[in-house]
Amino acid sequence: MSAAPIELPRWADTALVPLVSVAAALVIAGLVVLGIGESPLEATALLLRGALGSAEGIGFTLYYTTNFIFTGLAVAVAFHAGLFNIGGEGQATIAGVFAALACLSLATLPGFLLVPLAVLAAAGGGALYGLIPGWLQATRGSHVVITTIMFNFLAATLSVYLLVEVIGKPGSMLPETKEFASHAILMPMHTLLAPLGVKLPATPLNSAFLLALAALVAVWALIFRSRLGYAIRTVGANPRAAAYAGISPARITMVAMAISGALAGGLAVNEVMGVQHRLLLDFTAGYGFVGIAVALMGRGHPVGVALAALLFGVLYQGGAELSFDKPSITRDMVVVIGGVIILFAGALDGLFRRVVASILRIGRSA
C-alpha cells in the first residue's frame, strides 16, 4: 500500500524543500572535503569568492547560468505536460547545426537580419528535434524517455558526419566549421554595456543572457497565463480528464516537446553564436543533463529554474577557481557535489518533503 502524498503549502514546496535538500547536499560535500584533509568553510569561501567575488567571476558564472536557464526551462515545460525530456543535449546539438547553417549560408545579410534569423533557426532546429519524439509517443506509444536518449546519440553522430563531410572547415584537421562572420555573432556583454559607461572584463557572457531572461518571462506567461499553458498543465496532471474536457493529449504532447526543444536550442545560441563563433563537436558539454537537475530543483517554475541555474553556475565557476587554489579538491569533486545535489533534489525529494512537513508541524505547535 503506497503512502499518502505529503501536502505542503506552495511556498514551502517551491522554496523550502529545495533549500533543505541543497543544504543537506552541501553538508555531505563538506564531509567529503573534510575527509581529504581540507577545511569545508575555507573551501566554501574560496568557491563563492571565485564565482561571485569579482566582475570576471560573475561574468563566467552568469555565462554558465545562461546555459542552465535554457536547458532547465526546456525540461520544465515538458514536466508540466507530464513528459520527461532528457534529450536536451541532442536538441541543442541539432539547434547548433541549424544556427551554423544559417550563419554560414546567409552571411551576405546585414547583422540585424542575420542574427535574429540564426536564433530562429536554432529554435526551429531544436523544436523539430523535440517534436519527433513527441510525435512518436503521441501516435506510436514510444516512450519519450527512450526516444530522447536514442536521439541524443543520433544527433551526436549526425553532427560528426556533417562536420567531417559536409560543412567542416576546408583544410582543417579538427571537426569544426569555419568561423562565422563578425556580424553573425552575439555581442559580448562587456561590449554591449561599454557605451553605457559600464566597464566589465572580457568574459564569455554575451547577449544570450538577455534572451535567457526573456525566456524565463515567456515561459511563465505561457505556462501560467495562457490557454495553451493551462492545457499543458491539465494534460500533465490528468490526461484522461484533459481528453474529457476536449483537450487532445496527443497534440499537447507534440506541442510541449516542440517548445521544449526550442528552449534547448538556446544553449546552442549561447555557445555557438555567443562564445565559440563556429560549430564544433561536443559544445553542449553536458549542460543538457544538468538542466534536468535545474528543473527538478526549481519545481518547474521559471523563478525556481533561474535560482537553480544560478546555483549550478556558481558551482561550475567557483569549482574551477577552487581547483586552482586547492589542487587536492579537483573538478571531479565539484562534479560530485553537483551529483549529490541532483540526487537529493530528485531521488530523495520525498524524504526532504517529510523533513519540511515535520518542521512546519513543530513550528505550528510551538
Automatic annotation (TrEMBL):
Record keywords, A-Z: Cell membrane, Membrane, Transmembrane, Transmembrane helix
Localization: Cell membrane
Transmembrane recorded as keyword: yes
Topology in membrane: Multi-pass membrane protein
GO MF term list: transmembrane transporter activity
CDD domains: TM_PBP1_transp_TpRbsC_like
Record-linked Pfam families: BPD_transp_2
Gene Ontology CC terms, in alphabetical order: plasma membrane
Entry's transmembrane regions: 15-34, 99-132, 144-168, 204-223, 244-267, 279-296, 303-320, 332-352
Top-level taxon of the source organism: Bacteria
PANTHER family: ABC TRANSPORTER, PERMEASE PROTEIN, GUANOSINE ABC TRANSPORTER PERMEASE PROTEIN NUPP
Protein name: Sugar ABC transporter permease
Organism expressing this protein natively: Bosea vaviloviae
